[in-house]
Amino acid sequence: MVSASAIWGLSGIFYAKLSHLPTIEILAHRIIWSMVVFGGYLSFKGRFRSLFQKNLFLFETRYLLICAILISLNWFSFIFAIQTSQAVQASFGYYVFPIVAVFFGYLFKGERFSKYQKLAIFLVIASVCGLAFALRVFPLISVVIAITFGTYGLLKGYSQLGPIESVTIETMLLSPLALAILVYLFLDPSMRAPNLNIQDYIMLFLSGLLTGGPLILFSYATRILSYSFVGLLQYINPSLQFLVAIVIFNEPYNFGHSIALVLIWLSIAIYTLDSWRLESKRL
């Protein structure tokens, strides 16, 4: 779980090396090579053919297409944030996501907030306002990342498939569009980066491993660890993203960022401690 979160958290360094390429081209390669990685993994495990059980496949694809669109928007937003020196915004998006998930549970699953969860949500809203003040602009990337990932997680909760199987179908559904984008870019050189070298192609292929590897590690971790502990360890990801943005990318950091970060961590602490309290009561 730590390895998966660390890879996700440090992935901004990888995508920064591809900043000379259009975001849409990187995304198209990421979709195609992720499909190859996930498909290869399921074939190795002997589980690929089970994806095409008629009734299950038809049931799943009805909303996995929406999931595919959401995760592609999420991936695009993250890559775009790295390329445009807005990695701090991306990190805040993944900080905010768990609280967004709680809010969606209230709206769509009939879950109810404890008083501490209400406080955590209020602090998250305050942190977004604080980030907007620090950036002098509405943190659109943070909001898009949090909402797309939160909605994605909500829909995935209704899936009868495992996480690897479902994301394999998602990348399969997106691959025709991704391939069409690459063909279009190939036929119109003015729309793509000139003089791609072998290192670029290798890194574009590795984007599939960078997507698939951590998710496979994550799926194994969730079978062993408690859900609340998994939730806590996931904060390694945005924390590393934030450090990469400030220390490696040298993005601007001011007092407003500090206020927003403190509010985020307060909400995380309150939410996590309350989750442990509620889980201990159930046990």
Give a summary of the structure in a few sentences:
With 283 residues, the protein is mainly α. It contains eleven helices and no strands. The radius of gyration is 19 Å and the shape is globular.
Query: How many runs of DSSP E, i.e. beta strands?
Result: 0
As a percent range, the share of helical residues equals: over 70%
Envelope shape: globular
Largest sheet: none
Secondary-structure element order, as H and E? HHHHHHHHHHH
Distance between the termini: 24 Å
What low-confidence regions span 5 or more consecutive residues with pLDDT below 50?
A: none
Strand content: under 5%
Q: What structural class do helix, strand and pairing data support? A: mainly alpha
Radius of gyration: 19 Å
Taking all residues together, what is the mean pLDDT? 85
Put simply, the count of helices is 11
Description:
It is a single chain. The protein is mainly α and 283 residues long. The chain is built from eleven helices and no strands. It has helices at 2-16, 23-45, 54-83, 87-108, 115-135, 140-156, 163-187, 198-224, 227-233, 236-248, 255-282. The longest helix is centred in the first third of the chain and has 30 residues, at 54-83. The radius of gyration is 19 Å and the shape is globular. The two termini are 24 Å apart. The mean pLDDT is 85.
Furnish the topology, listing elements before pairings.
Layout: H1 2-16, H2 23-45, H3 54-83, H4 87-108, H5 115-135, H6 140-156, H7 163-187, H8 198-224, H9 227-233, H10 236-248, H11 255-282
Helix pairs in contact: 1-3, 1-8, 1-10, 2-3, 2-7, 2-8, 3-4, 3-6, 3-7, 4-5, 4-6, 4-10, 4-11, 5-11
